[in-house]
Structures are given as C-alpha cells and as structure tokens.
Design brief:
Blueprint: E1 8-13, H1 19-28, E2 35-40, H2 47-51, E3 59-62, H3 72-83, E4 91-95, H4 102-109, H5 112-117, E5 120-128, H6 139-146, E6 150-154, H7 161-174, E7 179-182, H8 190-193, E8 217-224, H9 230-240, E9 246-252, E10 260-266, E11 269-274, E12 289-296, H10 302-310
Parallel strand pairs: 1-4, 1-5, 2-3, 2-4, 5-6, 6-7
Antiparallel strand pairs: 8-12, 9-10, 9-12, 10-11
Organism: Teichococcus aerophilus
Protein name: GTP-binding protein
Family: Belongs to the SIMIBI class G3E GTPase family. ZNG1 subfamily.
C-alpha cells in the first residue's frame, strides 16, 4: 500500500517572536509521532538548529540564507530527501527565519509534486504579545500575518491586558480569518496546527504575485574559541543593542568550563540562561563562543562587533 501524504506545518514570525520555542513544544508534545524539523536561520551560524529538541525525526539545518529567496532549491531538495526516509515521517515542521516572507515559501510548497506528497497543512505565525505599536506596522510582520491560518501570541506572561488587546486588533485587521491562540512558553495546541487526519484535501491558497525581493537585514557572526567575561559581555551587548534587531548565541562563561549559556536579544530585551550540557561530546569543531547579530543593513559592521566582543575574551 502506498504511504499517505505527509502534512507540512510552516512556522513563521518576526525576529525574536519565539518561533523556536513553539517548535520545541510541538516536538516535545508529539506523543511518539515522527516529526522531521527543517530549521532556516538567517546566517552562517545556525543557533536555532542547536536549540531544537531532540524529539524530532532528525533536524535539518538550512543556514546562510533565507528560504524565501536564496535557498529555494535547497528547501525543495530537502523535502524530497525527507520523503524518501524509511520510516517516513508523519509530519514535517519548517521553521523559517525571522526575515522570511512566507508568501514566497508557500508558493514553492505549492509545487504540484511537493503538494501531492507533502501538502501544506497550516501556516502558523508567531507574534510577540509585547510588540509595541510601531512593530505591529512593520511591512514584514504584516506579510507574515497575511499568510497565517493560525496566529500564536507568544510572551503573553510579559504583556499587559491593553498590550495584548492591541496585538489582537492588529491581527484581526490583517487576517480576520486566522485562529488566534495564546502560546505562553510556546504552548501551541497541537490539534490546531497538525490535525490528526492527513488525508483531507489541502487548503486552497493564493500567495499572490511574486514580489521583488529587497534586502533589508544582514547578519554578522562572531566566534571565539575561548571563555567570555559575563560582565564585559553584558556591557558590550548594552552598547550594541540600540542598533540590533536581534542577537542570539551560545558561549562559555569564565570560571564555568563546559557549562554553556544561551544569550538572546529580542525586542530590546536581553536574556541569559544556562543550557543543559551535552550528554555526549557534542558537535565537533564548534567554537566555545558563537554569536549571531542581525541588524538593518549598514547599521553595524563586523569590525565594530569584533572590537566590542574581543574585550570580553578571558585569556587562559
């Protein structure tokens, strides 16, 4: 008997909205369902792929580009390879980069060959419930909302009632047909985004005409095979943050060898949390400190980032 279609969940959302947290929740709550995860980070260092839980049927990283433009062919080839796996996954989750316009990705997923084998089931847009009014008018976020079947409001525990209502109204203006759910700590209800009936016909979609792609953001990476001073790093990020749209990275702090920390900067808020040490030797060749910075083109240079972070290195 021929195997049935494998539904695809496309997860989109602006920089720092919380997409990876949502994907991790979906994988953790899969209940034994085989789910393949495709992660696209905008940069040469794919931090998000490191953060995806090991509950998936294999995490595939598409780095150093955006799947809405430079990596279109890679995405389709990746999906074709996933569908040839034995055993075949029961679902595929694609996490886009925060700079992706999902209309272009949807257009690629409507390829007749892919659509027959891996129909696009749901477009899930993750929206930061604490987003200020100006952010809710960002053209990229609006493009992401216009493609959404489901909108997940993240960080609701940090947003007041008035702020959440403002976000809900913005969503309703752009995509009144979307289902809106709250997703504290990424807790999206699985039946809403991955229904149990994979045989039902795909939802008709019209991504519209292909629009010219204009580069708006750039990514700058910094690595060092050394531990960092935590106070100096906090000071350096404080100086750089006014010109950053997003930053994230993994590093070891001085005096705590072998204990990685996860640093994230989103919507002007910086967070730092210890990560679970790898149970095995971990991926070979990774520097002890690796951080990705995303900024609008021309606002920061590699030299400026290097000068700020080199001061954080603690000599051994």
């Amino acid at each position: 008997m021929a195997e049935g279609p494998v539904p695809v969940l496309l997860v989109t959302g602006f920089l720092g909205a919380g997409k990876t947290t949502v994907v991790n929740h979906i994988l953790a709550e899969a209940g034994g369902r085989r789910i393949a995860a495709v992660v696209n980070d905008f940069g040469a260092i794919n931090i998000d792929a490191e953060l995806i839980a090991g509950a998936s049927d294999g995490v595939i990283s598409l780095a150093n580009g955006c799947i809405c433009c430079t990596l279109e062919g890679d995405l389709l080839r990746t999906l074709a390879n996933i569908l040839r796996r034995d055993p075949r996954p029961e679902a595929i989750v694609i996490e886009t980069s925060g700079v992706a316009d999902p209309a272009d990705i949807v257009r690629n997923l409507l390829d007749p060959v892919i659509l027959r084998e891996a129909p696009l089931e749901t477009v899930l847009c993750v929206v930061d419930a604490t987003a200020p009014p100006a952010a809710l008018e960002d053209p990229l976020l609006l493009a992401q909302l216009r493609m959404a079947d489901v909108v997940a409001l993240s960080k609701t525990d940090l947003a007041d009632a008035a702020g959440q209502q403002r976000v809900r109204e913005a969503v309703a203006r752009q995509r009144p047909s979307a289902i809106v759910v709250e997703a504290p700590q990424g807790q999206v209800p699985l039946p809403v985004v991955l229904p149990d009936d994979p045989t039902r016909p795909p939802v008709p979609r019209d991504p519209g005409r292909r629009r010219p792609h204009a580069d708006r953001f750039e990514t700058l990476s910094w690595t060092a095979d050394a531990a960092l001073s935590l106070p100096r790093l906090q000071a350096a990020i404080g100086r750089l943050s006014p010109r950053l749209a997003r930053a994230k990275g993994v590093f070891e702090a001085a005096g705590q060898p072998g204990r990685p920390f996860l640093f994230q900067l989103a919507a002007g808020r910086a967070t730092l949390a210890p990560m679970k040490p790898p149970s095995g030797p971990g991926p070979a060749g990774l520097p002890r400190a690796r951080i990705v910075f995303i900024a609008e083109i021309g606002r920061l240079s590699t030299a400026e980032i290097g000068a700020a972070l080199e001061e954080c290195i603690v000599p051994t």
